[in-house]
Design brief:
Structural class: mainly alpha
Distance between the termini: 49 Å
Number of strands: 0
Radius of gyration: 18 Å
Strand content: under 5%
Helix content: over 70%
Number of helices: 12
């Protein structure tokens, strides 16, 4: 399978408002490459565009309880199977950010950080939590400008979100420091783990800066 060709066709289908076809193409790609970032982002955009309407893809997927299968896979500690089941659950329940978030989170736990970023990015316009998670993953992967944009998007959802404000402020400070000091020691100084912890709310007890 030519994955790039499939994804190019999916992107074109989205531009032509053929979200059903785009989702089907991306689903096929992710069967072969479950960690593909572009496939995850395009699939998420297509699923959100479908908005819960009936589609040929949904009929092909059938009526099996994908959510139940995902929970079973989590219990049996099979992260790949859990991510796959939640992807199918999202396609059966398109337009639901909560289902998409569950899938994106499963991708991250399965070790597919790029695909998780793609999925969270595809949800960022519709969900503040997705925007923050996308920001943390982008920061962890060294994509500082993208991370700042995601945190700004989170603040557009909720201007009072102190978590997003703190993360954006810290990241902007880190970026300024890197611009001044990069080349002196060859290190960026970006604490990617801190951003990941913040995105999950693990440091919520700390006072905002």
């Amino acid at each position: 399978m030519n994955l790039k060709k499939h994804l190019d066709r999916a992107a074109q289908a989205l531009e032509r408002d053929q979200a059903d076809f785009a989702a089907e193409l991306c689903d096929q790609v992710m069967d072969f490459a479950p960690g593909d970032r572009r496939a995850a982002e395009l699939l998420t955009q297509a699923a959100m565009a479908l908005g819960g309407g009936k589609s040929g893809l949904l009929r092909k997927l059938g009526a099996s309880p994908a959510g139940l299968a995902a929970r079973f896979s989590k219990i049996t500690r099979n992260p790949d199977a859990e991510a796959r089941s939640l992807r199918r659950a999202f396609l059966k329940d398109p337009g639901n950010p909560a289902t998409g978030l569950a899938w994106a989170d499963a991708l991250e736990r399965a070790g597919y950080a790029g695909a998780a970023l793609g999925a969270f990015a595809g949800l960022a316009k519709a969900n503040v939590e997705a925007a923050k998670r996308a920001g943390s993953l982008a920061a962890a992967q060294g994509e500082v400008d993208a991370a700042l944009a995601f945190y700004q998007q989170a603040l557009e959802h909720n201007p009072r979100d102190t978590e997003a404000m703190r993360a954006r402020k810290n990241l902007a400070a880190e970026q300024a420091l890197q611009n001044r000091q990069y080349g002196e020691d060859g290190q960026s100084g970006l604490d990617s783990e801190a951003f990941l912890r913040a995105s999950r709310g693990e440091d919520e007890g700390q006072a905002p800066n």
